[in-house]
Write a structure and sequence with these properties.
Length: 152
């Protein structure tokens, strides 16, 4: 299942990028995340590993990830794996001037086990819902990055 979302943020790219890579900021805009810890931090970022825990319908879901691509203030790619699915997540940040940035999120999810059989249903639901969860997340990131920029 693939999804794509783009948002324009009234804040410079370097500030928006902080909201993608800083653990404390991430917890403020990513829905249902209750833990985000670095397992391995590499000097050039690529190869860094992390663990995240999400609360979904009252149950904890543990995910492990690796940063596979990193260009500061421009691009970040994450491979995330869990019991039910694997996810390839790409963020592309494009400055639209000194005070504005465009953030694009491309997500590919590969379901595992019994979830594979339900993937066509999830795919249709995502298309009909316009990838609502992604849009809600990015809108929250937009609000927080813009508020931080306004206060600097």
């Amino acid at each position: 299942m693939k999804s794509n979302a783009t948002v324009t943020i009234n804040a410079p790219a370097d500030m928006v990028f902080l909201w993608l890579e800083d653990n404390d900021r991430l917890k403020k805009w990513v829905p249902n995340i209750v833990e985000d810890e670095t397992i391995l931090d590499t000097p050039d970022k690529v190869g860094s590993k992390f663990r995240q825990v999400y609360l979904e319908r009252g149950k904890e879901m543990e995910m492990f990830g690796e940063l596979t691509e990193y260009i500061e203030n421009e691009r970040m790619r994450l491979d995330i794996t869990g019991d039910m699915f694997d996810m390839d997540l790409i963020y592309i940040l494009t400055p639209q001037g000194p005070e504005t940035s465009q953030l694009e999120q491309n997500t590919t999810i590969k379901f595992k086990g019994l979830m594979k059989f339900l993937s066509p249903i999830f795919s249709v639901m995502a298309k009909l819902g316009g990838d609502k969860a992604t849009k809600v997340s990015l809108d929250r990131l937009k609000q927080m990055a813009e508020a931080e920029h306004k206060n600097t």
